[in-house]
Every structure is written in C-alpha cells, then in structure tokens.
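S.,

Sequence below, as promised.
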Amino acid sequence: MEVGFGKLQRLSSPLHAEAVGVMRSVERAVQLGMTHIVLETDATILGEALRSSAWDRSPYGALFRQMRDLLYFDFTKSVISVCNRACNRVADSLAAYAASLVVDASKIFMDHVPEFVSPLVSGDKPGAHV
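The prediction came back faster than expected:
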C-alpha cells in the first residue's frame, strides 16, 4: 500500500487538480512496476475522459490522452471507477492536509498511512459504521 499527498501549483480548476493527481499516481504505479490498476475518482468528467475521447478537445485534453496512453501501454488491466464523493474521504482528507501546509511539500507513505487517515480507512471497511 502506498498513499501520498502534495501541494500542486498553477492549477486552473478542481478538475485540473484531480487530473494532475491521477496522472502522478499512474506514473508512480508505472515506476513501481505494477501491471494492474484501479483508479477511483469522484470527478465524473475525469472518469469519462479516461474511458473515451469525448473530452479530448477540452483544455485538459492532452493530459487526458497522455493518461489513457499510459493506461493502455503500461498496464495489462486498468479499471476506471467513478465513486460518490462520500466514498472519497481518504483522498479528500489528504488533499485538505496538503493544502493546509504553509510550504510546498509532498510525502509518500509506503508501509503505513498517516494517523489522521487511519480512522477513515477503517470506517470504509465492510460492516463498519461511521
């Protein structure tokens, strides 16, 4: 398991931030030699853009095409899942934490999740009540 956060600069919209975050995650998965990937996002447009060329003429079209190429050429299996925003609490918590940092910083946790994320992860387990 790996989880990370970072502060992104020069973004034009929440969709742009989500797309850059996904791109960095996909690139990291390629670096780690992964061959199967499941991408979960709460951005419906991003999900559509990764499944088809429908958004290729948008301002982020080049980024969407680059992600699709990585998914096609570097993975034997990729699944794109659009989930309800309520199911994305871990990602939202990490993003809020990164945004609160005074200095630009990023961090990757390889073997454990940060303390503030643990209760959210355990709350997502089947049968858990939040």
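The radius of gyration is 15 Å.

Coffee later?
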